[in-house]
Each structure stands twice: as C-alpha cells, then as structure tokens.
Amino acid sequence: MTSHGENSLTGADIRARLDHPVVDADGHMIECTFAVLDFVRQVGGMEIANRYEDQLKLDPTGSGRRAVWVGNSGPGSIDRATAMLPKLYRARLDEAGIDYGVVYGTLALSVLRVDDDELRPVVFRAMNMLYADMFKEVSDRLTPAALIPMSDPDEAVSELEFAVNELGLKAIVVNTMLQRPAPEVLAEAPHLAHLSLDLTSPGIDVGGVYDPVWAKCVELGVVPSCHNAFRGRGSTHGSPSNYCFNSLNSFGHGSEFFCRSLIFGGVPHRFPDLKFCFLEGGTGWAAQLYNSLFEYWEKQEPIPWIKVHDVPDFVHFTHKRHVKAGLACQECHGPVEAMDRVTRVADLKMPWCVDCHTEKQVENGRDCWTCHAGIGQ
Which pairing describes strands 100-105 and 23-29: parallel, antiparallel, or unpaired? Predict the structure, then answer.
C-alpha cells in the first residue's frame, strides 16, 4: 500500500470513483512464527511443536528461496507490519480502497504441503485456531481462510466441521495438488520414495472418495479455494536458482490443473450447487481451458488418453484368452482397484510373458506365433 511515487494514484482515490464495494478476494497476512508454535504446542504438545519448529528453521534465504518477501522490507516496513497485525490491517483498508477482505496465510502455502500423518492434523488445527484468534476483533471487514487438509477425506471433513462450526470461519483453502510416492519406488526402495512424488488431484482418478468432503462443503456453505502453484522438483517451474522463473504463471498452472481435474472427474456434475474459487493465476488459463473443451466437443473427437498398458504392434495380445484362463486383472496390472492413478507394475516385455507362460504351463505358451501372429509368413 505504501506509495513510492510523488503523484501516485491511491487505492482510496480509485475507490472514490466507484459505485460498488471493493472486495479483496486474495488478501495476505504474514504469520508470526512464535505465535504459530504456541498454538501447535497447545494442540499437539511440545514434541510435535519441536518437530515443526525444525521444519520452519530450513533456510529460505538462499538463491532458491520461495518468496520475495522473506527478507527485510525496507521502506515498505509499514506494509509488512500491516500484514502481520490484523487491527492495523483493518485500520488501513480505507487507505487501500478496500471494503472487505478475505485473508490467506503466507506460511499456509507450505502448511498445505505437510504430508506427515502425525504432524499434519496438529499443524492444520493450530493454524486455524491462530487465524480465528487473530481476526476475531476485525471480523466486520476481514475474514481469514481456514486450511483444510486433503490427504485423507475423513481428516478433511473433521477439520471442516471444526473450522466452520466451532471457530466460525467462513472461507477455506484446500490442497489441490497431492503428492504421493510412486508405488514402484515405495515397494522397492522406500527410503527414496520422497524423491519420486507423483502429482495427483482430489478431483480425478479417485472415484467418489472425496465426495463426503464436497458434500460437507455444500452443507456448511463454504467454497473450496485453490491457491496451489505448480512449482518445485519435477515441475516446469523447478529451477533451483531462480525464484522469478519458478513463480511466473505457476499459480495459473495450478488452477488449471485442479479445474480440469474437477471437470473430468465429474465433481460439478455430482455437486451442481458447489462453487470453487481459483486464486492468483489470472483468467487466461480458464479461457484457454473453456475454449479447448468446446473444440473437442464440436469436433466430436475423443479426448486423447495416455495408454499405460501398451505393447508393440508386432505383439498379438487379447484379454479374452487370459480372462478365459482365469487370470485376475491384478496379475498383470497390479492392484488397480487401490490406485489413485493407474501405473504399470509389470514391464510386459517378452521375458516376463514367457516366464508367466512357463510357470502356468500354458499350451504353446513358448511358441513364437502364440504372441506374434503372422510370424514367418
């Protein structure tokens, strides 16, 4: 809000020319670490608080730092203080030309990625209690967004009920990019699993697992908001040295990913009254997605799917023979019924097939023409 020019147009000047309220749908606060840890201790005890404090001590000031506001704020110190003190924040809303603000945490962006099953529910609960306490005296013009964990649907429903019914919070933000270790690496080298995280969404490839979460949002009258950025290891925004390279349009990519997953996962169809909010990514991605959907529909072309279990053209394979022989799907495809995202568990190469045919004593199972029709013709 601080002006660095002599004749700058202020937010109050712009507001004076408008005949409608101005709502800041993506305001930001900066949490005080000592206050966060106080609430973590209150919820989970000293040991959990110490573990979380160790995570917070990771140095964010190197060349790969995640945010430009990590360092000193210089001439904008009053603005930094404003983001940390809700009463000062409220007092300066008129100066900024804002009538009402929905406020999201800054530390919250990293909290949404906490995947430790013991740490996560404690930290989410503590953050929401902190937000409710911070903003309870300025609720006429500011409302904080509660953090809802999405790693486990039951955990999400529980935190929704607590944040809305007990704390009285009115806005929520959910983790829309879930990172799970590749099952092959988890099985063969669990100590390396954290280096092979697959990106998944609660909107697609999970059936109705998250339907209780969406139903609870409808019941409580809250709108799930997406505030995820597609950046970091394994992404198109993963430079270890350049923050700006990683930041540009990363939120747009995150919003498009979640929106697309909701559409193709059928969530809006099953919950037509549920609305979603997409933050900080502009609208260009949405216009492009909207146009692409209509292009596919008007051309009546099938949506291109990525075939996971594929074999070369010179291999003659039919499911019919294998089904008649009594093979279960899982023998070749693994536990597909439990997969959030279908992955290949067998290489489907000739040695693997021949070994299986030999083990099961398949008639003519080792003959070339059994799998390679037309060979020798």
Answer: parallel
Backbone angles phi, psi at 145, to 5 degrees: -95, 125
DSSP 3-state of 25? strand
pLDDT category at 64 given cuts 50, 70, 90 is very low
DSSP 8-state assignment for residue 237:
S
DSSP code of 337? G
Q: What token pair was written down for 234?
A: 């394994």
Tokens of 2: 């601080």
Residue 200 forms beta bridges with which residues?
178
156 neighbors 178 (Cβ within 8 angstroms): no
State the Cα–Cα distance between residues 32 and 47, nearest whole angstrom: 20
Distance CA 101, CA 334 (A): 49
pLDDT band at residue 365 using 50, 70 and 90 as cut-offs = confident
Ranking 81-90, 108-117, 123-132, 267-276 by mean pLDDT, the lowest is: 108-117
Closest CA to 31 of 60, 56, 61, 3: 56
Nearest in space to 147 (alpha carbons), one of 105, 207, 189: 105
Mean pLDDT of 28-39: 94
Sign of CA dihedral 159, 164, 168, 174: positive
Check: CB of residue 255 under 8 Å from CB of residue 279: yes
Place of tokens 């933050």: 279
3-state secondary structure of 104: strand
CA distance 271 to 207: 14
- Rounded Cα gap, residues 58 and 72, in angstroms: 18
| Model pTM score | 0.76
Distance CA 192, CA 189 (A): 6
What are 257-282's pLDDT values in tens digits?
999 999 999 999 999 999 999 998 88
